[in-house]
Amino acid sequence: MKPDIIVVTAAYGHTQIAALGGQRALLPIIREAGADGVEIRRELLDDAALSTLPSLASAIAEHQLHTSYSVPDTLFCDGGVINPRITHYVEEARQLKAQRLKLALGDFTGALPRDTLQALLVSLPCQLTIENDQTEQGQLAPTVAFFTAVREAGLAINMTFDMGNWCWTGADASQAAALLAAQVGYVHVKAAVPHQKSFRAIALDEADDHWRALLQQLPAAAPRGIEFPLEGDDLTAVTRHYVSLLRNV
Questions:
Q1: pLDDT of residue 1
Q2: Is the pTM of this model over 0.85?
Q3: For 4-15, how does the pLDDT look when each residue is reduced to its tens digit (9 = 90+)?
Q4: Per 3-state DSSP, what percentage of the chain is helix, strand, and coil (rounded to 5)?
Q5: DSSP designation for 113
């Protein structure tokens, strides 16, 4: 069975999304390209859009797409406290009828508040998934420690494995995949190259084949999200090309 392919709206770039009129305008492109789902980014929703999430959910359903909801915030605040803002994100995910809510890890101190997390999972209408982000807190050691604790506690939290973000944290992506593959429930497909003093994401056709080998280390059934730049005069054709590529790798 081939994996679902999800298009992350941010792949089109903030400027292009604004010019088109927001993330909702991308839905026909994503559907016509043959994708199975869309990842809605909270950072691209203004206050007006946040107040009409049920309408956005209806539009996504009309285009026969599944929904992932990405929030640029963390599960843990400083000191290992569960982020109090998560209750708002849970409600937003419910209004979007999302299949998954994605957060970054944040300040995991090694102590897992199992009961609090279990109560959060009970309240959540979808899968909670934690991504390795580009910060110090997204490095390999705390990520492995967290998912080891999650597994031992029997909590239903899985990982969004961002293939490119390991560049920013200085980790070996293949080693990360070897250690974390069993916890991965969603993959952000991304290739990155050095740029000035950091890195930048590039389209897969511009990258070497390392991304293919890395993807083969991860669960074949995990949905694959396109999170590298989608650019060109015909966005539907460009998106369709990569949807087909990732479905058949």
A1: 81
A2: yes
A3: 999 999 999 999
A4: 45, 25, 30
A5: -
